[in-house]
Amino acid sequence: MDAVALDVQTRDKAVKAKNLLKADLIPLEFYGRGVENQSLQVDYQTFRRLFRKTGSNTIIELKVEGKDSVNVLVHKVARHPIDDKIVHVDFINVRMGESIHTHVPVSFVGLAPAVKELAGTFMAHLNQINITCLPKDLIHSIEVDVSSLVDFQSFIRVKDLNVGEAITIEHNEGDVVCTVVAPRVEEESTTEVVAEGAEGEAAEGAEGESAESTEEGGE
């Protein structure tokens, strides 16, 4: 995967984070093995657009003014609890010759026959997959075709994923990625019938007790 470039600036630590955010700037931290920690800042909309496109699993060429560019991954994005705006980002250094451990999202494509023909409900058990690979082999997502889910006994497991030999998936081969579950209509109908039967039995029991009381009273 080709890296994407991001221009950032050195941050004055004397300036409070809240003041940067008011100026539409996001405070950044860059760190990692073998590098010196750096406090940086970036234009809010510039990073927002880039992150929407790349997510956390794309190599970013961080271009710091006056310094050599470095390859990084987004390590953590902090958001405001109320408006969900980005308030802080951590970048971690990437050594292009060393394997990295990260996760990539699963992209489900196609239509499962068990959904279309049997009115089942699609169920994703894994929305992201943990992987190990060299930075140059990092992929943006793993595409999973769900057309093989023909009934409620069909599963797509980790062993069925196609990611190539350069990538190692850090899950058990038997882990379920997705399946289709049967509709609950029949179960709910059965419950209703049982409930109605129980109510009928209770009513009959009450009528029987009333009749017995009347007979005893008559005696």
Can you put this structure into words, describing what you see?
This protein is of the alpha+beta class and 219 residues long. It has two domains: 90 residues, Ribosomal Protein L25, Chain P, CATH 2.40.240; 82 residues, Beta Complex (RNA Polymerase Alpha Subunit, Chain A, domain 2). Helices cover 25% and strands 36% of the residues. The strands form three sheets. A six-stranded mixed β-barrel has the order 1-3-2-6-5-4. It has a four-stranded mixed sheet with strand order 10-7-9-12, with no helix packed on it. The chain starts with a strand and ends with a helix. The mean pLDDT is 87.
Largest sheet: 6 strands, mixed, barrel
CATH architecture of the largest domain: Beta Barrel
Q: Which structural category fits the helices and strands?
A: alpha+beta
N- to C-terminal separation?
Answer: 95 Å
Topology:
Elements: E1 4-10, H1 17-22, E2 25-31, E3 38-43, H2 44-54, E4 60-64, E5 70-79, E6 86-93, E7 100-109, H3 113-116, E8 121-124, E9 128-133, E10 142-145, E11 155-157, E12 168-169, E13 176-181, H4 185-218
Parallel strand pairs: 1-4, 2-6, 7-10
Antiparallel strand pairs: 1-3, 2-3, 4-5, 5-6, 7-9, 8-13, 9-12, 11-13
